[in-house]
Amino acid sequence: MKLIYSIACMLLAMVGCQPPQGNSVNEAFEKNSQTVMTYLEGIQTESLDYDALYAKDAIVRGTGFGSPDSLTLSDIIAENNVSWSLFDLELVTDPIVLLPGVNVDTKMADGSVRYYGDWKITIPATDSTNAKSGVLRLYESFDFDENGKIVFQQYYGDYTALIIHLMTNKSDSTEEGESE
Question: How far apart are the C-alpha atoms of 9 and 2, rounded to whole Å?
């Protein structure tokens, strides 16, 4: 019987020692989710207010073949401008479900935000070519500073395969689902 009481007390002590998770983490997640939704809309409309969304020292980590391990905010602005000049981007996942992230060390929710989404990427038609599209499945996560600005962003998706698909035989292509 003493063994049962000892185990029960030990379990109670372990549960009681967990740090309380206040409402502040939920509030941070809700606020940061709004920032992510603004970011997602800005990507689609080709109009981001970088000063409102990102901290000055923000770092973005991508997974593109041959891309650097991390990009600064000025690198991201330049990359977005190139992408917007070449492609139309549309998040086709509906509804968009934002999920809370966790601290790597504590495994507790920390106000970070992540999502999984399908992006339709289109090379617009020109006078001599038809439009061509592909869908990129993307995982993206965002960490925030105390002011609610993005300090770390990372994304995973097979950009290389999508670009190869879009650029292969571009002059002979048709809009996805259409025939010549």
Answer: 10
The structure tokens listed for 30 are 């809700």
Predicted TM-score of the model (pTM): 0.79
pLDDT value of residue 168: 85
Q: What are the start-end ranges of the E strands in the chain?
A: 54-61, 71-72, 88-91, 99-102, 109-123, 132-144, 150-156
pLDDT at 62: 72
Burial 47-71 (b: 16+ CB within 10 A, else e): ebebeebbbeebbbebeeeeeeeeb
**Three-point CA angle 154, 35, 142, nearest 5°:** 20
For residue 122, how many other CB atoms are within 10 A of its CB? 17
Q: Are 145 and 151 in contact (CB under 8 A)?
A: yes
* Residue appearing with tokens 């609610």: 148
pLDDT, tens digit, 9 for 90 and up, residues 23-46? 889 999 999 999 999 999 999 999
pLDDT at position 94: 94
Q: Where does 125-173 show beta strands of DSSP type E?
A: 132-144, 150-156
